[in-house]
Every structure is written in structure tokens, then in C-alpha cells.
Design goal:
By secondary structure, the protein is mainly alpha-helical. The chain has one domain. 63% of the residues lie in helices and 3% in strands. Helix 1 packs antiparallel against helix 2, helix 2 packs parallel to helix 4 and helix 3 runs antiparallel to helix 7. It is globular and about 45 Å long. The termini are far apart. Keywords: Signal.
């Protein structure tokens, strides 16, 4: 495993995340590598499921979805070296706040933490020249209710 991979795995700490990161190695030419868009689509679905489970106060499912979301972020950063490590590691405080809120079963803290996490996702998109991909806290349970599809006004 490369130094980059170890740094990323440690930055997004958690036993489940570290185990997933250890299983990822540089793919060989004959191995399937998911497209970044596919990984991010999975992350978007996990983001919505995280929110819906937290809103329903299903804290066990919420914790599971958070681990899955972290694993997607680690996978994206390990497989796509064009993603700066700092973009992923800056999410750690909001991921930890979300985890803490889940452990405390505190809906208000959870909502704030997921809002901060969502803004972190959008900050990463902006830094990568993908500001047209805007994620939001889901407003309902409809598929992709956590993405804004109308274009943003130009500043």
C-alpha cells in the first residue's frame, strides 16, 4: 500500500474504513476499476440513506450508512490520484461530528453535522472544477432528493 493510501486511511480513521482501505491495492490492467462517477453516485445514495435513517432515528442503520459513505470516499481517493488528499481529509471533522451525533442519538447535532458534511462535499466539488454538482441535505425521500438540478446563478 502506498504512503498516500496509508495517510488517507489514517485520516479517515475508523476500524471499518481502515479495513476497507487495506483491501484496496493498485489495480492491475486486468482488474475492474469502478468509474469515479459510479463511486460518487454510490456516495450520493449513501448520503441520502444516512440522512433518512438519522431522521427516522434508526441509529444503527445511520452508523452503518456513515461507514459505507466513508468507505466510498476512501475508495475514490485511493483509486483516483487526481483527487487531492486534502479534499478528503478536510471532511474528517464533519464525519467525526456525524459519528459523535449518531453515538449520542442526538437528532439536532446529527442534522448540523450532516449539513456540515454536505457543505464539505460541495467544497470538494468546487475545488475540482465541478461546482455544477451541488449536493444538499435531502428534502424528502424521493430518489436523488439530495441533489440540486437547477443551475446556480453565476456570481
Amino acid at each position: 500500500m502506498t504512503l498516500r493510501a496509508w495517510m488517507l486511511a489514517l485520516a479517515l480513521t475508523g476500524a471499518a474504513t481502515a479495513v476497507v482501505a487495506q483491501d484496496l491495492k493498485s489495480p492491475s490492467a486486468d482488474q475492474y476499476v469502478p468509474r469515479l462517477g459510479d463511486i460518487m453516485s454510490a456516495a450520493q445514495a449513501r448520503h441520502q440513506k444516512l440522512w433518512l435513517a438519522g431522521k427516522a432515528q434508526n441509529w444503527e442503520l445511520t452508523a452503518f450508512e456513515l461507514r459505507q459513505l466513508k468507505a466510498s470516499l476512501v475508495e475514490a481517493a485511493l483509486l483516483y490520484s487526481g483527487i487531492p488528499i486534502s479534499n478528503v481529509t478536510t471532511l474528517e471533522p464533519s464525519l467525526q461530528s456525524t459519528s459523535d451525533a449518531i453515538a449520542a442519538k442526538d437528532g439536532r447535532k446529527f442534522a448540523k453535522a450532516v449539513g456540515d458534511l454536505t457543505e464539505g462535499c460541495n467544497a470538494c466539488h468546487r475545488s475540482m472544477g465541478r461546482s455544477f454538482v451541488v449536493i444538499r441535505v435531502p428534502s424528502d425521500a424521493q430518489p436523488f432528493a439530495n441533489q440540486q438540478f437547477a443551475p446556480q446563478a453565476k456570481p
